[in-house]
Amino acid sequence: MKRIFLYLCFLGVVTGLSAQNSDLTHYVNTLQGTNSKHELTRGDTYPTTALPWGVNFWTPQTGPNRDGWIYQHFKDSIRGFRQTHQCSSWTRDYAAFSLMPVTGKLEVNQYKRAAKFSHKNEIAHPNYYKVTFDNKITTEMSPTERGVHMRFSFPSGGNSYIVIDPNNGGSCVKIIPEERKIIGYCKNANFSVPKEFANYFVIVFDKPFESYGTWTGNEGKITPQGLESESEYSGAYIQFKKGVKVQAKIASSYISYEQAELTLQQELGSFASLDQTREAAKKAWNKQLNKVQVEGGTEEQKATFYSCFFRSMLFPRKFYEHDANGNPIYYSPYDGKVHEGLMYTDNGFWDTFRAQFPLNAILHPEFHNNYITSLITAYDQSGWLPSWSFPGHQGGMIGNHALSLIADAWAKGFRSYDPKRAMEAMFH
What we know:
24% of the residues lie in helices and 27% in strands. The protein is of the alpha+beta class. Helix 5 (356-363) packs across helix 6 and helix 6 (365-382) crosses helix 7.
């Protein structure tokens, strides 16, 4: 009875205070938990710039491509600003690509282009990331669910390059100077995805290109004025006038270039500046963060709480897009086909089935309901319930805690799925 009373009191606090709309994003420090390494982990996080449960996240990258430790707080250089989907350092990333501003001599190799920075010149919140390198280049990012708004400010007098790095594992880039645009795909992933899996991206800049080219391989062999390249590892670079301040709007899709273009217009088309995107992202986060308002305690304690609460609303992530009519569609990481409806992925269930998912049932019932339904959908498309979806079946852990999620949801009144189908999946 005491547990029920506390549960009802918690619900009362949530519903009674959620209508208030304090700005709580300033409490969230996305650098928390980033001082980790393989030998000793202290969180295994990275400075996640994203919307709640976003399809794509964005982060500065201190580690090498394809390495599980994307950002380590003790390092002093950044080699790119990366679209990431990583939910564990141990399973690493998939469908990752990055942009990196370079001044002075053009360098495309990920080690040679890295720039020094200090944490005192870094701002890291869910809706906004900013850093100024020692070479005086400033980079800013603000997210949408499937895209990002970036702004690069170069020092006067120096060359102004941006390097696009789709990582190895199969990639393509195409430069369209007359549209100030670069499109491409990256296929870097793990064994859980279908053979045809690819992440199609579109990048549109607001300033004209002075020059451009492509590059290939780990060594970064440059082809000046090259417009297109497709290989195991192909990248691109563009040059702007010296001292430029340039914005980039970026979106991606697992379906097609055309879908990525549509998503860019849907999510970033109405934002003329990064500052507008930043405010929209702040509003989205405050809607969720205000579901729990804390009283008492120190400012440091509030920052700790909201930095952790923020992390509870990243995974599992949405894995669907919207067609021209606004209807949800998705490329399935299970059967490699495009379907109508909703899909979610990126969670391993170990420990999260004990605490995070029950919390989702209380604070985010609609989201939780959709997620449980997507587990049954994954079974329909693959013959298995996910045990570690990243984004398809990794099966990297013993047991399958999806069963406990389904049973717990049913006990709490979630009824969006066919119980007979669920039982079939659980007994499989």
